[in-house]
Inverse folding.
């Protein structure tokens, strides 16, 4: 998962980046629109304002010009300069002579440096007295309104971008809660399945419908996988059992027995223990099959197996090697004679006749061959070979018993 | 509070209540520059003055002796009205014959009688009242910087002749004469 995480950006990063881009685009578009509109409005406002101020200046200048009073003229124009919207006022009389040219001391140098090419930089107004034009006012703009507009636009932009960033953080956080965290939980559960085979984990429900659906489907998938895994493991166990055990007798089969002997050799070698391998074979078993049928034969085999088990101690192993051949592993021999005692007990257990149908019964007599570890051999093959050989010796030494 | 402060305070109060308000127009150079400036200023004041009946012809009666008024003559004002100037004896000037009266030098009793008889429907302008205290609404006063006028606020307030506030405002500066 960490390897995947380093491969590309996380969902959260992608979302946050998208939000920032969308937000910035929105802000840029709206700011451009607002600024353009503001500039147009400002142009109209500035033009009207300038005209108004020029008109006011003309009105104020009229009487001082008529009275030829330059000082009064300057004084009358001062209040118009107070607003700061005008950088300078020029008064020209009807003959074109400049009567006054007043610079506004309230206007700083900075505002005159602002780019105001788009905006009206001056306005003129006629000075009339009783219907006669006696002069002209020329008012030069200070560009202060535009400067304020630009400053407001910059402040507004910064505020908008700050808001966008804050909003993006909040939205990303919210999305992380509602989208990224549930997806991460699903990924984590999938990871747990992959690495630990842990099907127990379930993904918590999510707020977003699609994500919740995904989580529910994922949980359902986990359930199904869990079921499948259970089925597979039980099938596996069944197959394993079938491979290791003989179905008819319920005893371990040859290969399992060989494995157990091998294990026991390993343990006995460490602890210098003794144990015995007994091979046994039912005498005249084939006759039973031929006379009473395979079902009867099977019943005999099962009964023999059932009688073997009680004879043994815990730790001993009885197995069916195939046909009417059985084997027993007698563990922890304190004395070699003990193996013979077990063989004797088995022989005794088989003395009771086994009913093959309602009217007939057979008595299975077993020929038993014993091999002792380590006296007779230190490996499976030798021990089993010796036990087998001795069993056949025993069988051959016997006269086949007469059937009742 | 020291005596000096009290004296100063009284002086300021006196100057505020009694000292006339002044305006100032530049006087053209030449022999009768002052007369030209006086004629222009009187015409300008009348052009910014309005009577209740709004006559198209403003009759200006010039009384008393006054070299300064020598250039006062009939002329068309900027707004199209006509100012008709007529010289007459103080006793001949009356509210029925004059819309405005220019008062030159004359005996104090004649002046008091004249101003009393004219009432408040006539605009009164004088060049012979430096303190602007004898009752004429507007007192012309030459200064080294130019021709100025003072207002007798009492007369202006009582007068039914409305003078444009901008003209009154010219005298509000006050600084030109001091």
């Amino acid at each position: 998962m960490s390897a995947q995480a380093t491969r590309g950006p996380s969902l959260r990063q992608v979302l946050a980046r998208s939000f920032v881009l969308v937000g910035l685009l929105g802000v840029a578009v709206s700011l451009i629109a607002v600024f353009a509109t503001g500039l147009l409005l400002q142009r109209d406002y500035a033009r009207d304002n300038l005209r108004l101020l020029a008109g006011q200046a003309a009105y104020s200048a009229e009487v001082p010009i008529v009275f030829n009073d330059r000082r009064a003229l300057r004084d009358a124009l001062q209040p118009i300069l107070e607003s700061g919207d005008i950088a300078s006022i020029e008064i020209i009389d009807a003959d074109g002579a400049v009567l006054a040219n007043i610079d506004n001391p309230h206007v700083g140098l900075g505002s005159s440096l602002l780019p105001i090419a788009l905006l009206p930089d001056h306005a003129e107004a006629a000075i009339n007295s009783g219907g006669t034009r006696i002069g002209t006012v020329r008012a030069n703009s200070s560009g202060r309104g535009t400067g304020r507009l630009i400053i407001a636009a910059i402040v507004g932009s910064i505020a908008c971008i700050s808001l966008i960033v804050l909003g993006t953080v909040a939205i990303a956080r919210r999305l992380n809660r509602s989208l990224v965290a549930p997806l991460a939980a699903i990924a984590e559960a999938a990871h747990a399945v992959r690495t630990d085979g842990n099907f127990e984990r379930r993904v918590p429900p999510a707020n977003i419908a699609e994500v919740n659906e995904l989580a529910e489907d994922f949980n359902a998938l986990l359930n199904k996988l869990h079921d499948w895994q259970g089925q597979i493991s039980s099938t596996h166990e069944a197959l394993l059992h079938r491979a290791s055990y003989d179905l008819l007798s319920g005893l371990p089969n040859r290969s399992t027995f060989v494995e157990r002997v091998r294990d026991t050799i390993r343990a006995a070698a460490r602890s210098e223990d003794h144990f015995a391998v007994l091979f046994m074979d039912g005498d005249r078993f084939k006759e039973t099959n031929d006379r009473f049928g395979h079902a009867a034969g099977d019943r005999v085999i099962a009964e023999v197996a059932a009688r073997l088990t009680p004879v043994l101690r815990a730790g001993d192993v009885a197995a069916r090697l195939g046909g009417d051949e059985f084997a027993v592993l007698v563990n922890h021999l304190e004395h070699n004679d003990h193996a013979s005692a077990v063989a004797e007990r088995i022989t005794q257990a088989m003395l009771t006749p086994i009913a093959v149908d309602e009217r007939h019964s057979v008595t299975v007599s077993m020929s038993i061959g014993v091999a002792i570890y380590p006296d007779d051999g230190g490996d499976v093959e030798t021990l089993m070979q010796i036990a087998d050989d001795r069993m056949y010796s025993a069988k051959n030494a016997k006269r086949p018993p007469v059937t009742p | 509070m020291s005596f000096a402060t009290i004296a100063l305070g009284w002086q300021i109060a006196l100057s505020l209540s009694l000292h006339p308000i002044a305006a100032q127009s530049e006087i053209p150079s030449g022999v009768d520059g002052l007369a030209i400036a006086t004629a222009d200023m009187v015409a300008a004041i009348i052009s910014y003055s309005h009577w209740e009946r709004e006559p198209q012809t403003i009759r200006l009666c010039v009384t008393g002796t006054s070299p300064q008024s020598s250039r006062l003559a009939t002329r068309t004002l900027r707004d199209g009205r006509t100012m008709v100037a007529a010289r007459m004896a103080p006793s001949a000037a009356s509210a029925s014959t004059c819309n405005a009266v220019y008062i030159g030098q004359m005996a104090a009793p004649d002046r008091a009688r004249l101003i009393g008889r004219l009432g408040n429907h006539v605009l009164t302008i004088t060049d012979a009242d430096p303190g602007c205290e004898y009752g004429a609404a507007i007192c012309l006063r030459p200064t080294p910087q130019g021709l100025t006028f003072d207002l007798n606020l009492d007369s202006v307030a009582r007068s039914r002749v409305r003078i444009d506030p901008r003209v009154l405002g010219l005298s509000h500066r006050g600084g030109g004469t001091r």
